[in-house]
Design goal:
Blueprint: H1 16-29, H2 33-42, H3 47-59
């Protein structure tokens, strides 16, 4: 569970309005597209509820690093 109840299944069939909400949530949270979509879907496409849930889980450190669009990757020097 990333951003809400487990009943919110990821569905790639979406409306233009849903896609717009995903993009807006990405801008506010820095989540990647997949996790922003999942967060909204798990919160009934309510952007206020999704953002609130994100903020709660983020404050708890419960969101994995791979959920974010701009991860810093450590490059190991060649041996």
């Amino acid at each position: 569970m990333i951003c809400g109840d487990a009943d919110g299944l990821l569905s790639w069939l979406q409306t233009d309005e849903q896609q717009s909400l995903v993009l807006q949530l990405q801008q506010v949270t820095s989540l990647n597209y997949q996790f922003a979509h999942m967060c909204l879907a798990q919160n009934g496409w309510d952007p206020h509820q999704a953002l609130s849930q994100f903020q709660t889980l983020h404050a708890q450190g419960a969101i994995p690093p791979e959920a974010f669009a701009h991860q810093q990757q450590v490059v190991q020097p060649a041996a």
